[in-house]
Amino acid sequence: MNTCDLCDRHDAQVRVLELPLRDYGGRIGFDGIVSTIKAYEDNSLVRDAVAEPGNGRVLVIDGGGSLRRSMLGDLLAAKALENGWAGVVVFGAIRDSAAIGAMALGVKALGTCPRKTDKLGQGLRDVPVRFGGLVICPGEWLCADADGVVLADGVLG
Length: 157
Prior knowledge:
By secondary structure, the protein is α/β, with parallel strands linked by helices. Helices cover 18% and strands 34% of the residues.
């Protein structure tokens, strides 16, 4: 199922992220149950999350839209892939985009930045986050492809 078909068939049940995210992962289309992180220029919680079994989930990172520091790099993306995460959506920047592009992991972000984040252990895990005109809650279902990102309260098909 792609995002356009989901919108056509389930328009009243889906919400569309109003944000021009770019595709960076080697897997353009992905979907899964959402887990969230809210952290500004500190990816400590991202490191913790991708070290856990992903079970096909999608990690949604609210990095405050910052393009000054990258919230995901190739090492954390490789760990996410190894642990079964379907994808990562970043309201912020990533780095190591060429290496991430070679991985079978869905990754969408605003852009890239070669600078890594601070590691201060700051941020919140599995809380509602707000960006792109939506409130995104843990446990919702996310579907992403080349046309965008849609969310629903449950899995649609």
